[in-house]
Amino acid sequence: MSEDNTDASHQGTWHGRCLCRGVAFTIEGSMSELSACHCSQCRRQSGHYQVAGVVAKDAITFQSDVTLTWYRSSDHAQRGFCSKCGSALFWDDGGDNMSINIGCLDRPTGLHLASHIFVADKGDYYQISDGLPQADQYE
């Protein structure tokens, strides 16, 4: 995942939360096109690949963040998750934007997957056959 993608393709309001509701938030504004990240860190954190979109940090308003915990997963970034239920929620490299794991958003999102990234690192137990663009790394 990367926060360098600031080309917003979606405008709207989205509500998200973790499974136990210890973390709840609203996003108002722009969201990038969605990418499915198949890197080993995303797969290990979620149990499969993760789909995320990038938003400006100032577009996020928390209604609750009492159980929000950050784990420094690399020298480059940290991952936000709920310390009570374990829901994976965010990816942050310290810039002005943050990646949101789309699975934590309430339906309907009105969003659609646009591409796959880090496919060279994907699990060997599935195929990507949806016809969307694939990149071995993040472009």
What does this structure look like?
With 139 residues, this protein is mainly β. It contains one helix and ten strands, in the order βββαβββββββ. The protein has one helix at 40-46, and strands spanning 8-17, 23-32, 34-37, 50-56, 60-65, 68-72, 78-82, 88-92, 97-101, 113-117. The strands form two sheets. A seven-stranded mixed sheet has the order 6-7-8-9-4-3-10. A hairpin with a 5-residue loop joins β1 (8-17) and β2 (23-32). The longest helix has 7 residues, at 40-46. It is globular, with a radius of gyration of 14 Å. The termini are close together.
Topology:
Blueprint: E1 8-17, E2 23-32, E3 34-37, H1 40-46, E4 50-56, E5 60-65, E6 68-72, E7 78-82, E8 88-92, E9 97-101, E10 113-117
